[in-house]
Design goal:
Blueprint lengths: L1 H43 L10 H10 L1 H12 L5
Helix pairs in contact: 1-2, 1-3, 2-3
Amino acid sequence: MIGTILMIFVAVTIAAVLFFLLRNGLKLLINAVCGVVILFTVSYFNLAPTGSFSLAQIIVCAVGGILGAALLIVLTFFGIVI
């Protein structure tokens, strides 16, 4: 009886933790994808002189998301290309 109650408690706890992690993780994933899409769009339409893509630019956009893409665009206008 105690084992069954303990298993139910553990299952509910794991489900709650996964729910909160995946909910926040989905927001981060959407932000990262939007940042990379913005960088590709700006480069495709030549809106900023980003040059060819480097691994560092992709990582900055993937980690920083929309703000990372904005930072890279602002830096290119000052002549700093990562």
